Every structure is written in C-alpha cells, then in structure tokens.
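Q: Could you write out the predicted structure for this multi-component system? I'm mainly interested in how the pieces pack against one another.
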Amino acid sequence: MPIVTVEMLKGRTLEQKRQMAKEVTEAVSRSVNCPKESVKVIINEMDTENFAEAGVLRCDKK
Amino acid sequence: MPIVTVEMLKGRTLEQKRQMAKEVTEAVSRSVNCPKESVKVIINEMDTENFAEAGVLRCDKK
Amino acid sequence: MPIVTVEMLKGRTLEQKRQMAKEVTEAVSRSVNCPKESVKVIINEMDTENFAEAGVLRCDKK
Amino acid sequence: MPIVTVEMLKGRTLEQKRQMAKEVTEAVSRSVNCPKESVKVIINEMDTENFAEAGVLRCDKK
Amino acid sequence: MPIVTVEMLKGRTLEQKRQMAKEVTEAVSRSVNCPKESVKVIINEMDTENFAEAGVLRCDKK
Amino acid sequence: MPIVTVEMLKGRTLEQKRQMAKEVTEAVSRSVNCPKESVKVIINEMDTENFAEAGVLRCDKK
C-alpha cells in the first residue's frame, strides 16, 4: 500500500509521466517487497511561480 | 483542529464536494469529539494523467 | 481511490481512531459515490510542540 | 533542507508570493540555523470550492 | 528538484529503505531527465492503527 | 487560513521550533496580508534514515 507523491515543476510530457509512474512503481515494489498492484503514484505539478529555492521563485531565476 | 485532505480524481460536481465537506466534517467532529468549527477540509483534485495504480496512469487504463 | 489524510494532535484513543476511519470512509463513499473499498485513510498525529496557531506552539498555549 | 509547503486560497499576486517566499525562507533559515540555499518553498493554491471550514465550502460562505 | 514522498507502514528494514531511496531516485532521474542530485526522497512511516482501507484500521484487519 | 507545513530533520530544540513558528507566521501574515490568527504551522520531523538526497539516505552520508 505504499503511496508515492512526486512534486515537480510543470512541463513534463505524458510519455515522461507514464515512464516515471512505471519505473517508480517497480522500484518501490522491488525494494520494499510488495505487489506492484498495491503501489499508488500521485503527481503534483507546480507552476514556476509556486516554487522557490533560497527564497527566490523559480520564475524569477535567471 | 483536525485538517483533512482528500485527494481524488477530477470530475466531481460542486454539489458532491459540498456534501462531502459537510459529512466528513461531521464524521470527524463526532468520532474525535471536537467542535465542527475546528475542522478544515482541503480537496486536492488530480488529472487522470497524474495518478497511477500498479504503475499504469489512470488515463491509460482501459 | 480517494486518499484521505487527517492531521490532528496526539491523544486520541484507538477506539476514536477506529470510529473516525469508519465514519469518514462512509461519508466519502456516500457523498462522492465510490465504493468503500477504494477509500484509504491516513492519520497523522502531531506532538503539541509541532503545531502552532497564531504563531504560538500548542504546548505553550495556556 | 527544510521543505516548506504553504496551502492557501487562490488570489494572491505574484508580488505577494515573491515576498512570502523570501520572508518565509529567511524566517526558517534564521530560527533553525540553516543556510537559505537549503530552504525550499512550495505554494499550493486552492479554489474556493476546494476548501471548507466547519463543513461549509468557502465558495458557499456569505 | 522533484520531491518524492513515500507513505508506507512501519516495519521495513534500514536496508530496504536504503535500496528504495536509491532505486526510486534513479527511476525519477531517468524518466524525467533530471540530475540525481536534485531528487529528494522523504519516507513517512505509519503505525497500523493510523492507516485504514475500506473503513477498517490495518491493526484490526484479520 | 494559510496552512504551513515544515518538513525537516529531527534535532531542533523546542526554542528553535518556538522561534520558527513565530517568525514564519509573521512572515506569511505580513506578505500575504492575512491575520496572524488564521495562520497554522505544522512541523514534520524526519529521522535521518527517512530522508535521502541523490539517492543516499542522510544517515549514510559521510
């Protein structure tokens, strides 16, 4: 029943998400020894004006 | 002060959300014995390309 | 597949959690029209030194 | 490496978010004694139909 | 900068967590095409009395 | 009603948390223009075996 949430910036293609969901699920299932069917993956996409590092919004970063 | 977050796929109507917020708040308030005024509910809606089970994105599921 | 996370202060009994899980699941299932089997509930308990309102930790509140 | 998530209703300007990211990062860095570079801030904006207090959606509040 | 949070029940060994962190990071880095250094993994472990499916706490499941 | 969650490694003193809750609340209140009373802060502390960067658990980092 692991629930995996991935927070990342917007801009990935559907194919990248598809690949990520598949590979992350396999990685969790293999390392933690649980059936793939029990793994859920949630993708949370952020706008560049909603993420900051070192106090600077990503949309302001040069 | 319970804070309840509900993550679910997009597609519910406003009336369904309204009902859910009301009923979940009552359920928490009753079972945990706190005033309804202290319960907050956050709804997080996901696109079908942002949720996967068994490594398969919901938008790819047949 | 709704995933419900409840954040609240420590101190509830097992019986209160049991009741809450049951009632919240029914409330979500009924209002959003999904099978009870698809609803997951996660309880996140906080110490009173890990929650603040108005800038004051709960453990400091008189 | 503190990761700060701020959940709030939609409607703030870019300038307000910019200021918030800056000030929150400084507050965390100062009080917890870590470099500003290690602080990340994620802003999660909610629609008024996705937040409820006392069982009432914000969009229904008069 | 993907931030990956894995919520799962307590009981995994340190070696399982170590393997999971490594493999999940590689899976995200590869599929989303970002440096491994930018991937963070947070593990959130739950007690069996803090997780429910179908309204039944895991600790009550036979 | 901003809800601020701070995820960080264990090891901060009560005084550091107290200071952080106070300063973060003021920072959010000031920048986003909302009453301090409406700001909530949740602190989520992680063990060093539950956080990884670049695929390496913090407890394994030299």
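A: Regarding packing and overall arrangement: Residues 22 and 50 of chain D are 27 Å apart (CA to CA).
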